[in-house]
Design goal:
146 residues, mainly alpha, 5 helices, TTF-type domain-containing protein
């Protein structure tokens, strides 16, 4: 009789999408979506700083919000600013503050890695365009005089 009850319970869970496998799949998709959205925000911050030729890092790279962490760098400061309005970045910084994350992807090593990846992408795009072009030229601003 107990096995019949387990069978009926499992059948109901399958029909309502509440089995452990389905829950794990749902949690995995939510996690993937969270990390995708987070890296999208970080990419936007990097593009913003890069386009304006601003520095990324400061003297004290910390996400703490107290007064001791002045000059934590443009990347961290923009992350803090955007996290005030953006739920994805706010959730991420809250997880960092509560020490729920071992790797938060905002440290200087990750910043350098993301910059390197983006610069390699730009370099490869320029090289690809040069190879496709019949003619090309470079302008050297150091030798340009009016």
């Amino acid at each position: 009789m107990a096995y019949m009850f387990q069978w009926i319970t499992l059948e109901k869970e399958i029909n309502h999408g509440k089995t452990e496998d389905q829950e794990n799949g749902r949690r995995t998709l939510e996690s993937q979506k969270h990390w995708y959205n987070l890296f999208e925000r970080l990419n936007d911050i990097i593009n913003f700083l890069d386009y304006r030729n601003l520095t990324f890092r400061g003297h004290r790279e910390s996400l703490k919000t107290d007064e001791d962490t002045k000059n934590s760098g443009n990347f961290i400061d923009l992350s803090k600013l955007i996290s005030k309005c953006d739920p994805t970045l706010r959730e991420h910084t809250n997880r960092i503050d509560n020490k729920q994350l071992a790797h938060h992807y905002l440290n200087h090593d990750i910043q350098n890695e993301l910059i390197t990846i983006m610069s390699n992408t730009v370099t490869n795009e320029v090289i690809g365009r040069i190879k496709e072009a019949q003619y090309y030229s470079f302008f050297n601003r150091l030798h340009y005089r009016l």
